[in-house]
Amino acid sequence: MKDKQKKTHVFQSEVKELLHLMIHSLYSNKEIFLRELISNASDAIEKIRFEKLYNAEKYSQNEYIPKIQISIKKTEKQIIISDNGIGMTYDEVIKNLGTIAKSGTKSFLKKIDNIEKKEKNEFIGQFGVGFYSSFIVSETVSVYTKHASNQEKNGTLWISNGKGEYSVETTPMKEYGTKIVLSLKNSEQEFLEIWKLKQIIKKYSDHLAIPIEIENYDIKTKTFSWEKINEAQSLWTQNKNNITKEAYQKFYTYISHDSTKPLIWSHNKVEGNQEYINLLYIPKKAAWDMWHKENKHGLKLYVKHVFIMDESTQFLPNYLRFVKGIIDSQDLPLNISREILQDSSITQVLRKSLTKRVLKMLDTLSITNEKKYQEFWNIFGLVMKEGLAEDSENQKTISKLLRFSSIQTQTKEQTLSLNKYVKNMIEGQKKIYFITSDSYKSALSSPHLEIFKEKNIDVLLLSDKIDEWMMNYLIEFNNIQFQSVSKADTSLDDLVSNQKINTNENKFDDFIKRIKIILDNKVKDVRITYRLKNTPAMVLTDSNDMSTQMAKIFSAAGQPVPKIKYILEINPIHPLIKKIKKIENNKKFADWVEVLFEQSILAEKGSLDNPHAFINRINNLFLL
C-alpha cells in the first residue's frame, strides 16, 4: 500500500446521530464498550481462520495462534485492545468506521431514541455498530489496522474524537490485525483498573472461544506478563451436564447482545447419518427489527468447530426467525458458501431436524409450564401463525401451539389452545367455530354470536390481521373441521332446528318476496334465520364466496376485490321485523328495508359505500 497523507473526513449523517446518542444518552451501562470491542476482535479472528482454510494462497501459512490482548497505560489514561484478526484495508477503514451501510438505520435511530435508557445498550450490539460505543468513555479513539493479505510495511491509522470528523492516514505496521487505543475521559478513570476490566471480561466474554489476555506488571521483578482471563473454550462443545445455567445464559448474551435472560434453550449433540451439535435459544423478547423486511436473523454456522458465517437463515424456516443459537456440523465442507448451503442436501436434513427440535421445545414448554409458554405466545404468537402456511409438514404441531381468545375465555389475551377448545365442545357439536374481525371488541359483539352465547357453544375470536389468511391453511384439528360463523353452513342451521316449531315460516313468504324485489341484485338471497336473538337482521357470505375480512386484506394490499353479494337473514321474532312486516306503504317499507340491510352491512364490514344515504334514510324515518 502506497503512503497516503493524512486526510480528514466527515462522518455519514447517521453516524453523527449515533455518536451523539452514544456520548450523551448511553451512560446507564458504560462497560458495554469493552464487550463490543472484544466481540469485534473475535469476529476478525474468526474471519482470518476461515480465510486461511480455503483461500490459503493469499495468506501466510505460519502457525496461527489467535489472541486478543488488553493493556492499560495509567499515566496516559489509555486502554489498548489488540487482536491478530484479519484487519482492514485503507478503504475498508473508511467504509466500516465512517458509515453505517446497514439498511434500516434511520428506523433504528428513531426507535432507540424512544426506548428506556436501560434497554438502549442492548440495541447497540444487535444493530452491529458496537465500535462506536467506545466514545461513551473516550475523548479520542485511535485505530491501527493492517489487512492480513497486505505484504507491505504500512497499515492504516484512523483517529476521531467522535464529534463529526475523523482522519485516515497510512502508518508503519509490521503485523496484521487491529489495535484500538482508547484515550479515556477524566470521568472514566475506573476503567484503568485491571480488576475492573477482568470483571467485565468474565461477565460478558468468559466463554468466548478465543483467549483474552490482560497485561500485568510485577513491581518486584519489573517485568510484564500476559494473563488469560476467559475460559476460551467453545461452550457448545462441552458436556452439557457440566455447563451451569448461568453459563448458558451468559453465552446467550454473547451471541444475541440481549441482556435479558432467554426463556428456554436446548443443547444437543447428534450422531448418526449426520453429526452435529446445536444450541438453540428462545428469547424472552422480540428483536427490534423482527418485522422489518430486511431483518437479519439465523443461526451462527460452524463447521468442525470453525466459524463459517453469521445469520445462516437456511437452517430454520422464516416463522422461527426469533430463534438464536449455533449449529456446528461435522459433515458440511469448510468452504461452503451461502448459495451452495441453500441447495445442499445436508442443509435440508439439518433444517428439518432443527425445526422439529424448536417445535418440540415449545410443545414441551406449553405442557410443563403454561405461564411461561403464555409469555412466549404474547411476544411471538403472530410469527408462529405464519408457520401454518410456510411449514405444511409441521402443521399439526404448530396447530397445537396456537392460542386464541374466545367467547368463553372472556379476555382479549389469547390463552385458549385448540386441545382445550375440543375438550370443552358440547355434546353434538360437529365443528370448531370461529369469527374473524378487525378488533376483539367487534368480534365479541357480532350478531353472528348470539345463538352461540345462548347455547354455551364457544367461538374463537380472531382479530389479528394475519388471522383470515391463516384460516385458509387451518382446515381441521384432530379431524374436526373449522367453520366461520359468518359463512353459510348446514351445521349452523342444525343448532336451531328445534326452534322452527314456534314460528310459522309460511307467514313470511310474501314479506321475504317484497324484500327481494327492493334489494334486487344487491343480495344473493333473503331468508328467515333463528340464530338471532337481539338483532333484527344480519348478513353472511355463501360458503364458497370470499369472506369480508379476506376482501379487506385484498383491498389493503391494492388488489382488485370481487363484489360480495351477501345473504340477508331476517330474525322473525324481533319487534322491529314485526313492525316492518305490517307496513303497507311501499316507499316507507322500502326505506326500512334499505336501512335494515345497510345496518347489517355496517355491522359486518364496519363501513358503508354511501354512509350519507344511510344517515338520510334514518333521519327521514325519524320524522315519520
| Strand fraction | 15-25%
Shape: elongated
Please summarize the sheet with the most strands: 9 strands, mixed
Strand order, sheet with most strands? 1-6-5-4-7-3-2-8-9
Task: Output the number of helix runs.
Answer: 21
Which spans have pLDDT < 50 for at least 5 consecutive residues?
117-128
Q: What's the CATH topology label of the largest domain? A: Heat Shock Protein 90
Structural class computed from helices and strand pairing? alpha+beta
Span of the ends, CA to CA: 94 Å
Relative helix content? 25-40%
Overall structural domain count: 4
Q: State mean pLDDT (0 to 100 scale).
A: 87
* Rg value: 33 Å
- Overall number of strands: 22
CATH class of the largest domain: Alpha Beta
Keywords: ATP-binding, Chaperone, Cytoplasm, Nucleotide-binding, Stress response
Subcellular location: Cytoplasm
Protein name: Chaperone protein HtpG
GO molecular function, one term: ATP binding
Concise synopsis of the structure shown:
This protein is α+β, with helices and mostly antiparallel strands and 624 residues long. It has four domains: 7-228, Heat Shock Protein 90 (2-Layer Sandwich), CATH 3.30.565.10; 235-378, Ribosomal Protein S5, domain 2; 404-485, 3-Layer(aba) Sandwich (Rossmann fold); 503-624, Four Helix Bundle (Hemerythrin (Met), subunit A), CATH 1.20.120.790.
Describe the protein's topology.
Blueprint: E1 7-10, H1 13-25, H2 32-54, E2 68-73, E3 78-83, H3 90-98, H4 105-112, H5 117-127, E4 138-146, E5 154-160, E6 165-172, E7 177-184, H6 194-204, E8 212-218, E9 223-228, H7 245-256, E10 264-270, E11 276-282, E12 299-303, E13 306-312, E14 324-329, H8 338-343, H9 345-368, H10 370-390, H11 395-401, E15 405-406, H12 418-423, E16 432-436, H13 440-444, H14 450-454, E17 460-462, H15 467-471, E18 476-477, E19 480-484, H16 490-494, H17 509-519, E20 523-528, E21 537-540, H18 548-556, E22 566-570, H19 575-581, H20 586-605, H21 611-623
Parallel strand pairs: 2-8, 12-14, 16-17, 16-19, 20-22
Antiparallel strand pairs: 1-6, 2-3, 3-7, 4-5, 4-7, 5-6, 8-9, 10-11, 11-14, 12-13, 15-17, 18-19, 21-22
